[in-house]
Records
---
Amino acid sequence: MRHVLMRAGRGAAVALTCAGLMTSLAGCTGSGVAAMGKPPSPEDTIRVIPDDGAREVLAGGPLEIRLPSGRLERVKVMRIESETPTPVPGRISEDELRWQPTDGTRLDLAAKYSVDVVALDAHGRRSARHTTFTTKVPEHRFIGYFKPENRATVGTGMIVSFDFNQKIENRAAVERAIKVTSDPPVEIVGHWFDKDRLDLRPESYWEPGTRVTVAVRLRDIEAAPGSYGIQDKTVSFTVGRSQVSLVDAEAKTMAVRRDGQLLATVPITAGAPKSTTYNGKMVVSDLYDVTRMDGRTVGFGGEYDIKDVPHAMRLTESGTYLHGNYWAAADIFGSVNVSHGCIGLRDVKGGSGDTPAGWFFDRTLVGDVVEVINSRDKLVAPSNGLSGWNLPWASWKEGSALR
């Protein structure tokens, strides 16, 4: 929403009332003689917009201080009633008769502000004025749920992903309010999947050791008519070592590479011919020591319901996991694809660190990449989990609302 700063009306001329005035103004002033009348009140000389005690002031103002004559000596506008009172940046005009916020300044919504002004009038007399006002309290708010968690250590394929609790109409404003930076610095660009999800990533996987900062400045950003953000926080995460695992669905193997060096090649079972595994780059988004897998939640009816699947690593939102499998015979792994689309590693009931599944689970971070090749299925959709690495960089950038 765009707000237009309204110009204040022209201040009325200050009238000097002199005691004993009868027929002329000759007795009111004279060389070296001070005015005899009562000085004008600060309310008359210092014009503050919005009015003292005003409520429902919009985030874009109007906010202005004006004098009819004289000069502004000092102006301080502060957000009060918060843990740390925050000044509103602004500037006094060259003629010293007007103060306005600096360009781009927006007030916080649902906040109280104080205005303190010291000014000199045309006769050199100092006066001061104090006012307060309160900004609009929106009826509707929106928030973004995002990964990864603050202070996490993640794999080099981590994508910063925001899921919003409502459709975002003003996507450019929301994307602009979310700033992702890194040390060492790289270009990081956002990509929208529909109107309720924004993912951000660099062109290539993060370098190990990179520190990433996510500044979320959504408070008072209008995402849709009448709906404003409430989040104002900064989180950070660190990129750990590089681990990329290549699953060959035809060979039924997974080659695990750490920082480019082959750690191990382990036998797997992938999707059966009627329920093949997606091809493409997928990113581990969640780790579960044990979880329940019910085929009814992913469109397989009652074909399976396993309440204690060990060492489960989520790869897509649609239900693709890389997980331990204790119910298949040991000779299945590396020889036959029997799963419903997941990637299975040999395990035992209850899980064990001595099995291929336990070994891999203990060496996996959220953000690690698992790439599947040679499956008789389509490429995983970039929006299915953190699978955005399957989009070329040019196509990824086209999905930004800022380009």
Note: The two ends are 20 Å apart (CA to CA).
---
Amino acid sequence: MKQVSIALLGCGTVGKGVIDVLLMNGPIIEEQLNTKITVKRVLVRDINKYEQMNLPSAILFTNNFQDIIDDEEISLVVEVMGSADFAKECIEECFKRGKSVVSANKDLIADYGIPLLKLSKEKQVDFQFEASVAGGIPIVRAMYASLNGNKIDEIIGIMNGTTNYILTQMTCRGITYEEALREAQVKGYAEADPTNDVSGYDAARKIAILGTLGFHSEVTFRDVQVEGIEKITAEDIRNALEMGYVIKLLAIARQDKEGISLNVHPGFIRKTHPLANVADAYNGICVRGNCVGDVMFYGAGAGSLPTASAVVSDIMNVVLHEHIGVTGQRDFVSHEAKLKPQASICSPYYLRLLVQNTTGVLAGIATVLATYHISIRSLIQKDETADIAEVVLLIDQSSHCVVQKALKELSELTCVHTIANAIRVIEV
């Protein structure tokens, strides 16, 4: 039986999970590859901390990356550190020394993935990153290996478990955003500083990665228009349900004749759509190809073993490529991206306005919308006995630019107290 030695950069939740999966499923892996994969070295900051953990005694812990890069027995390095800049330096050095790399680092891939892919091809080594998007869901390889015979038109998904947990609790239990966030933090779904998740940045990095793969174009995190869930209230959730929708934080990549658009924002989605039933911390991704039609991927988007499952799959793929001599042979990106102007992206909208409860208010709102040729699908006025009434509208498909101009003019009406929210309605 062949022997392959690998090294880990980092041994946190995912790194420990990789060791566990290799031990747990070693016989299955060896049977498929006729190869025994051994973790020889692990880079950590505090060696004493990890030497006291229940890990195989044969693993050599080090706090010096040079120990790994100089070890000629190690042909594959698994990067699970999470820090983008230092990880990039390490990976570049691995490539230059002829070592393939598997990474679970979405920040790294979203920011530096394209130049790293080019360098790996130049050095004839593999660079694989299945676990960088949606944990254990096999979406990355599906994009470049299973759906690669299609022209991908759309990728839309729930790609952040924290925000999906928060919105699920708000929907199912009627609690506020603040209450749901505190609960997510207590349960470990959300960090003490949840900004990366609730503001949409985590999902934005993931959709940038999938956009690069699906559209064969050089897109990055900076090309994604991002809006988080901080403004979603219990009132918005109730209104959505009454209208037959649920609210989800959606990551959307589309490609049409005008170019590529990449967005992360809350969206109204019909209760009957499969993504509407993706609950709690789970992820779901729908892909539309011109031949395959619509396909959906669903599962655990994070966690030690689910994410490690994706990492180990990449390890096995690299080992197979090493055996048959085809490392560094895959191209992911073929051309620069033509980005569609955000102002021209069209969709229906849900609007919630707080207005003075006086006569003529609805006429004034309708007049402004008519000025911008925006049609009203439905209009409901609530709390009519209060001094401040709530007006809820669904408007027909309109461009982002036109809607923003109309909202600005509405906010200047003396009868409008505030525009509480404006949320896109996703028609898929």
Note: The chain has three domains: 2-135+304-332, 140-300, 345-425.
---
Amino acid sequence: MTERLDGLAVRCSGCGIPLQTENPDQPGYLPEKALEREPVICQRCFRIKNYNEASSVTVDQDEFLALLSKIGDKDALVIHIVDLFDFEGSMISGLQRFVGNNPVLLVVNKIDLLPKVSNWNKIRNWVQHQAKEQGLKTVDIVLCSARKNQGFDRLLEAVAEYRGDRDVYVVGATNVGKSTLINRLIRDYSDLEQELTTSRYPGTTLDMVNIPLDDGRAIIDTPGIVYPWRFSEIVSRRNLGILMPDKPLKPAVYQLNAGQTLFFGAMARFDFIEGEHQSFTCYIGSGLGIHRTKLERADQLFAEHAGELLSPPTKEELDEMPEWTRHEFRISRNSQSDVFISGLGWIRINGTNGALIAVHAPRGIRVLVRPSLI
């Protein structure tokens, strides 16, 4: 039974879900005595905040889309937060269809993962091009790092510039840093002492969270959309911390001849099939080991050593993941391309004479070729 106060459902101040005290396996559960806590949060949020422990409670994907579809009928500023490390994996497909004519401010989080010497104007232009390719019209783009508090002054300026007297809807896929950024907005725009649940686990926010602002408007945090083509949605909780970098990426450069293979633990594999001797730069989290071998030995090596020499994941965890599928790409001359693996990182092709390459990754994981980010 949903808890009520003055006829209204009591909601978790962490994730926004209506609270209930009867079914521990359903979203919004908390023990009855916990209703006396201030602020009132569900058991799931309590465990995340105090023990860094996630629960398996999820909300139906159709509910997420139904919530998003309401934004087009509002007069609002829409802030779309994406993860620079998983850019193509965290962009909301067809967002323009949901938001109608409302202005969209694209906020690109986790720029602290790129080298400090990066050309930020080029990065911004790259983001603008990629967003346009996906049909998203933006009024502005802000590069930031919620964790390092970089770019946040510019975000506040942009919100002030484009909001007017509108509400602000914040949208994004799971695990892009959405709640962390909203907590910063709350501190600047509202006297309300409320902190959204933030963790590294996907799907932390389960329902719309309405945060009133001092001018009578509100910031509305929407649930994170769960996209199954991202590694973050298929790996174990232990491996999620390994895959998701929390420090600047250290590019790993490999000089390869045709007929050589790189394994990224037992998560994915990169084959250099045809082309002149050239270098490839891998941008992945430092917790995932890279193993080089000959292409002719790659299948046997995986069969005999996946989960051991090639790890993570373990053999038991591999059994829980989809089987690998193969993606082949011909890289044209002078293309300056990355091979992107959603949630794992990317490999930059540094040669200018073209190459034939293949990527093996769990079925359903998004793998594509894009213009080089760096």
Note: Confidence is low (pLDDT under 50) at residues 51-59, 196-205.
